[in-house]
Amino acid sequence: MLRRKSLKLYDHPDDFPFWIQINRHNTADLPDLHVHEFVEMVFVVEGSGEHLFQDIRYGIHEGDIFIINPGEAHGYSLKADEELVVINCLFEMSLIPMTLLMELRAMWSMDFYYVQPFLDEKARFHHKLNLRGSDAAAVTAVLKDLMQELHQQREGYRLLIQIKMVQLFVLLSRFYQERHIFGDNLSTGEVLVQRVCGYIERHANVKLSLTFLGSLFHISQRQLNRYFNRYVGCSPIEYIHKTRIEKAKRLLADTDVTIAAISEAVGYEDASFFSKLFTRKTGFSPGNYRIKFRN
């Protein structure tokens, strides 16, 4: 079984799920292939190497920046003469309050967080974002500010970190869109669906409804249903259930967490309802699924 990391391994403040640090890797100091329970943003400051992701590998170079989602296996491979310096920014999805994003009307400017990490592998990694010049300098400055705030922990540092993380994602989303990496050949409806799907992926553990999603993305429930059926092949509610079931399958196979706790972790308060739904969708009860697919 792959090593599974949580934020408890890092010396972050209590009840504030955030950590950031610079790591220097060479062949004598490489993290094993692992998975983690948090979101990880990686910015390559210097050097080059190979990034191992799930069952693929690809080259990474200075200026590359990318996100690893919870549950995704990754690591690095370097040659004897290669060295890699990266900034690792680790956080749980609860770090940035949704009320803050709604107040700032930032949902339309967060594609690097809500869309890019959920694209297919070709779009996600072979057309990844690489920063140079003033763009790299702008992102580096925000990352250094984040490190300073976390290290010094002066009055108001938590709020400043949350705001700077929003600033960082808005900047990255701007650079991403300016390079036309995403969305050139997509209709307005398809781009909207990508954003809503990404939001569901990030927040499947909380209460979600068609009314809430329509309000959040400023679209009628009827139109949102129409877009989803056209571009995804199911309704938003069906997509929520599908996303939650996939997350539950991963937790059942990869962890020893109880079924009741998994039910709650993926957004179902009623464990009995979760078990019945899981069985209907997969053909296995949660317990039998764990026995059959245990990693």
Automatic annotation (TrEMBL):
Residue ranges constituting the HTH araC/xylS-type domain according to the UniProt record: 194-292
Domain of life: Bacteria
Keywords: DNA-binding, Transcription, Transcription regulation
Protein name (Swiss-Prot/TrEMBL): Helix-turn-helix domain-containing protein
SMART domains, per the entry: HTH_ARAC (SM00342)
Alphabetical list of Pfam families matching this protein: AraC_binding, HTH_18
SUPFAM superfamilies: Homeodomain-like (SSF46689), Regulatory protein AraC (SSF51215)
MF GO annotations: DNA-binding transcription factor activity; sequence-specific DNA binding
Gene3D superfamilies for this protein: Homeodomain-like, Jelly Rolls
